[in-house]
Amino acid sequence: MQSRLSGHLRWLLLVAALALVVAACAPEDDPEEDPDDDVEVDDDPDEDEPDEDEPDEEEDPDEEEDPDDEAEAPDGGEFSMYLCEPERLLSQESSEVCGSQVLDVLFTGLVAYDPETSEVVEGGMASSIESDDNVDWTIEIEEGWEFHNGEEVTADNYVDAWNWMADPENEMGNASFLATAGFEGYQEVADGEADEMAGVEVVDDYTIEVSLVEPFGPFELLIGYTGFHPLPDEFYDMEATEFEEAPIGNGPYMMDGEWERGQRIMLERFDDYGGEPANAQAVEMRIYDDVGTAYLDFEAGELDIHDGVPPESRTQALEEYGDRAFDNEVSSYDYLGFPTFVEPFDDPDLRKAISLAIDRESIIDVIFEGARTPATSALPPILPAHRDGACDYCEHDPERAQELYEGTDGIDGTLELYFNSGAGHEEWMESVSLQLEDTLGIDDIEFNSLEFAEYLELHDAQEVEGPYRLGWVTVYPSPQYSMELYLEDSPSNYAGYDDPEFNDLMAEANATEPEEADEIYQEAEDILLEDLPIAPLWYGLDTVVHSERVDNVIANTRTFIEVADVEVVE
Amino acid sequence: MGRYILRRLLQMIPVVIGATFLIYAMNFALPGDPVAALGGERPLPEEQQQQIRDRYNLDDPLPIQYAKYMGNVVQGDLGESLAVRRGSDVSDIIADTWPVTARLAIVAFAFEIVIGIGAGVVAALRRGSFLDNLVRGSTILIVSIPIFVIGLVAQIVFGVRLGWFPVAGTGDGWISYIMPGFVLAAISLAYLSRITRNSLMENLRADYVRTATAKGMTRRRVVGRHALRNSLIPVVTFLAFDLGTLLSGTIVTEGIFNLNGIGGVAFDAIRQQDGTVVVGIVTMFVLIYVFANLAVDILYAALDPRIRYD
């Protein structure tokens, strides 16, 4: 820089340099960037035409599809919907809602569930799932189904996927469900002693036989879960992370382009789908970091379906959008657990006193704007086995709480409350502590809020010394799943609950025909709610809104929109 | 000058190595088990967890873990994410999110330079005028409002009500970056205009300005060539460090406007104790700062002939 450039020239250089940098980072004009480019839709989806004659917005999942809606119809319109960022797009790994919502559209499993009643309905790939003893199961699958790449879906696609998932080398989280059901030979694969599960056999292209180590009645409900999706042969030729960029499934929609992380996933109707063809021609799943931002986008007319209306906007949404907004009961469930392995929480009366002192209704009204359902049982309302008021100690009854509390040794010193930080639990925990102080006179309360990784480790080490918050989502609609976390040998049993009678009843119910099993599960639930190792708090409620452009918007109990059922009205 | 730059570049090597080790050690020291949290309330099977620990060397002592990590880095392999995007390469994660942050930073930077310096110069030249008071008042106001409030108000007014700009996301190319860019620039812009104003006012009172005016130079030339150039030193200092901040992603703005930038990834990675991702991204931030620092020093020499480095 010895030579003195003239001032003007120097500035010019600086501007030129900046321009270069700008040019280098300029967003490329990718055709993918513009969702309207590569989807053949006759009508402009950005047009927000108010529809005069709105059909009656009754959610009726049993509504028969119009038979004249041929798969060849080039039209069906396009709509956009909210999606949270998936962690993975791999059925064998995904257990969180964001990824599963997409996977359950890209894939069709063996079993479909009724979005309202959670019962098994037509629509899965299995034509029959039979067992005489709940131990040996025979699964017949329908012929003529195809993957999006044209491969036929056969028994091998299922069995290979399950064996691949079982192999610890592949680090697949949903392998835990193979253990839950007790697939024979799973443990050997997990221990590295075998490559394939001995209890899973391909009889012919359309028949699978599965043997379990113990009777497991909920097998049919479990086998439709995301983790049991089939995989195409092509999957094994590439890295799993590569497959995830554009998964090839057998579901009503296929990927259109790749997963654009943080932005969108474009889906296109799969015309050779083996089941009922989907209604809309294309779907844009728009990925949002924040439900509030998505709601603003919905209000700006940019988003057709938002199934995660933030609690603070719920009341306004229900008023303003009338029959285009509704609450959907979901199976997510928050509870206050007690470390039953340390004093004084080994005393059931103390646990009951704390549960009775909590005013669930007022917390829901004030903090969640009504977007929760008070829990009065351990089985969520989405299950047929659910009984309202099954829990005798889950109402707000300060007098009973005080009575019970006086009969115990009480809290000696500080009451420690635990929750995971950064997930919006601070506010209601604060309310709980105030209620405990008001009702039971416990005034020395300390909060321990930890990041999730640290929080779970504390639980694993049984170092939790007071009531703690955790949740549970019933991912396949069986009472067995809702209550498995209280079993003595469950890795999720952070309360340290161990009741032989409860364990036996659960085993007995698992061995019983599903029709009669619910009663036995309820007996087990009664024991649980009498011991109260956990205090049920509330069940989730998702508020859904949709624009006038779409109709027949149904949400299921796993919080997912039934994408294939949505109709575009234009 | 060339030798000076080379020396500065060589000095970066120990800085970067030291930074990676410190970050690695800090992440290592965090309590909690990232693998336990992977499955949420329903932990992964024990065998799977062990497999993951083995593959990411999580059971090794710190020096060995770090040595293995650096061994891969030297070969150009920044490692794989453990939690944020398990199985993905850290370099891919950076490649996916960094452009978004960079574009946002450039737009914000442009706003800062044009509006910030412009307002500062106008205020300094018209001292005590209505414009000057307007600049001073509005900057105080902007600085005192939290950024997420500015962001939300902008979204509701310009996005939802007026519909001028998209509410969120990056679906509309550069247009998408205007509103978040402005919001991100707002606070720095306020500071910048005040720095420019004060610095220029001080220089306008300096002897050499009187001399230049006395020699019969035009007012424009006096201000532009002499006073402003000398006033830019503090401004450039501020801008360079601000660019570093902008480029390292701003979690709040990215969050409000649903931009899939590097700030959000860094935030998630820290929360989920995704060591390789944290180290990779933070090291990149360190590099950006070091380069910004170097750029400032070189610019000083360009702005002020009295500053020499050789």
UniProtKB/TrEMBL annotation, chain B:
Keyword annotations from UniProtKB, A to Z: Cell membrane, Membrane, Transmembrane, Transmembrane helix, Transport
Cellular localisation: Cell membrane
A GO CC term assigned to this protein in UniProt: plasma membrane
Domain ABC transmembrane type-1: 98-300
Domain of life of the source: Bacteria
InterPro entries: BPD_transp_1_N, MetI-like, MetI-like_sf
GO biological process, one term: transmembrane transport
Pfam families linked: BPD_transp_1 (PF00528), BPD_transp_1_N (PF19300)
Protein topology in the membrane: Multi-pass membrane protein
Transmembrane segments: 12-30, 104-125, 137-162, 174-192, 235-257, 277-303
Similarity remark: Belongs to the binding-protein-dependent transport system permease family.
Protein name, entry field: ABC transporter permease
